[in-house]
Amino acid sequence: MGIAYNTRINTRIAPHLGKLSLKNLFTYSPTLMLWGGASAAGLLVFIEGWPLFRQTFFQKIPVFGSHWVDDTPEEDKPQ
Amino acid sequence: MSFSSIYKVFFRRNAVFVGTVFASAFVFQAYFDSSITKWWESHNKGKLWDDVRLKLENGGDGDDDE
Amino acid sequence: MLSQIIKSSRATSLRTVGRTARLSTTSLANKSTYRTPNFDDVLRKDGASDRSRVYTYFMVGSLGLLSSAGAKSTVETFISSMSASADVLAMAKVEVELNAIPEGKNVVVKWQGKPVFIRHRTPHEIQEANAVEMSVLKDPQTDADRVQKPEWLIMLGICTHLGCVPIGESGDFGGWFCPCHGSHYDISGRIRKGPAPLNLEIPQYEFDGDKVIVG
């Protein structure tokens, strides 16, 4: 028996999730951050009417916060 | 600001475009809400509960017998 | 304008490298020797100013703005229609005159469709409730945690086992007894014997002079 001199190519697969690998995740990160900001803004739109968020965040916006302050007198509220 | 720079700042990246749209939607909602309310209240001046209550507090003016 | 177009279609020129690069996207096309029309005459002077692009994107963005605000409004309308209406909220509280309850008596009132037990406890009963060792309790809780004023014990009259209504002034511990499966509660409403896992629940309430407002 002769000795096989041809060796197999030694390859390793970089860690990835589908098409996403660490390297291109790093490349995408500025875009992803911008998308994060965009989705935060989208979230803001949809929680605008939620009383909890009105009281905890929106009323505390410096100049325009008064828009979310409910100035209905206590006796005119249903409860 | 030239059109090219507007394009470059707001529209070139889709994320910025969508973000701007949502952020201005948030501002728009509040502005729209308060301006419509203001219009409604001026349109119905005298018929609102606030006006009626003022009238009642000043002693009914003989409207009670109706 | 029309004459310009006719003129430009006539005035075709050999494309030279770099000169009309604006119209082509690949370098291969730049090297092409095909005769292509020269559009320079009809191109706008501010053709590269992105004016029409900005206009188009602005319109698209405005549509997006209006539809997201509209979508949010629609969603909000549906969600707020699910919350309690004013007549339900008006029923959500119940006021009880405490003067009418003599010492050592139970009163059951209905609150949000559930029975609420109010007991005017005697000093002896308060002492008894405070004397219980925590170690014998299944759900350890001091009497002080369960009452705002020791003489008034206010709790939901729903057995924590399967939701029957316990009977007052009965059971082995001088409190409440659930006839369904035999749970015994003491004078503080704590579970002492039987299958129920927890003490009787305390609703939110506050005292207002001689009245108590549950809810």
Report on this structure:
The complex is a heterotrimer of chains A (79), B (66) and C (215). The model of chain A has no long low-confidence stretch (mean pLDDT 85). Chain A has a domain at 21-69. Chain A is built from 2 helices and 2 strands, in the order ββαα. Chain A is mainly alpha-helical. Chain A has helices at 22-46, 51-56, and strands at residues 16-17, 20-21. Chain B is mostly helical and 66 residues long. Chain B has one domain: Single alpha-helices involved in coiled-coils or other helix-helix interfaces, CATH 1.20.5. Helices cover 73% and strands 0% of the residues of chain B. Residues 5-21 of chain C have low confidence and may be disordered. In chain C, 30% of the residues lie in helices and 22% in strands. Chain C is α+β, with helices and mostly antiparallel strands. Chains A and B meet through helix 1 of A and helix 2 of B.
List the helices and strands and how they pair.
The complex is a heterotrimer of chains A (79), B (66) and C (215).
Chain A: E1 16-17, E2 20-21, H1 22-46, H2 51-56
Antiparallel strand pairs in A: 1-2
Chain B: H1 3-11, H2 14-43, H3 49-57
Chain C: H1 2-10, E1 13-14, H2 27-31, E2 35-36, H3 51-82, H4 86-91, E3 94-97, E4 106-111, E5 114-120, H5 123-130, H6 143-146, E6 152-156, E7 167-168, E8 174-178, E9 183-186, E10 191-193, E11 205-208, E12 211-214
Antiparallel strand pairs in C: 1-2, 3-12, 4-5, 5-6, 7-8, 8-9, 9-10, 11-12
Label this structure with key terms.
heterotrimer; B: mainly alpha; Single alpha-helices involved in coiled-coils or other helix-helix interfaces; 3 helices; C: 215 residues; Rieske Iron-sulfur Protein; 4-stranded antiparallel sheet; 3-stranded antiparallel sheet; 30% helix; rod-shaped
Q: Short summary of the structure?
A:
Chain A: This is Cytochrome b-c1 complex subunit 10. The complex is a heterotrimer of chains A (79), B (66) and C (215). With 66 residues, chain B is mostly helical.
Q: Which pair of chains has the greatest number of interface residues, and how are they split between the two chains?
A: B-C, 17 and 14 residues
Shape of chain A: rod-shaped
The largest pleated sheet of chain A is described as:
2 strands, antiparallel
Distance between the termini of chain A: 95 Å
- Show unreliable segments of chain A: none
**Major sheet characteristics of chain B:** none
> What portion of the residues of chain A fall into strands of 2 or more residues?
5-15%
Class by helix and strand content of chain A? mainly alpha
CATH topology of chain B: Single alpha-helices involved in coiled-coils or other helix-helix interfaces
**Strand-pairing-aware structural class of chain B:** mainly alpha
| Beta strands of chain B, count | 0
N-to-C SSE series of chain A?
EEHH
Roughly how many Å is the radius of gyration of chain B? 23 Å
Question: How many separate helices of chain B?
Answer: 3
- Report the average pLDDT across residues of chain B: 86
**Terminal Cα separation of chain B, in Å?**
65 Å
User: Do you know the CATH architecture of chain B?
Assistant: Up-down Bundle
Organism (chain A): Huiozyma naganishii (strain ATCC MYA-139 / BCRC 22969 / CBS 8797 / KCTC 17520 / NBRC 10181 / NCYC 3082 / Yp74L-3)
GO molecular function (chain A): quinol-cytochrome-c reductase activity
Keywords (chain A): Membrane, Transmembrane, Transmembrane helix
Protein name (chain A): Cytochrome b-c1 complex subunit 10
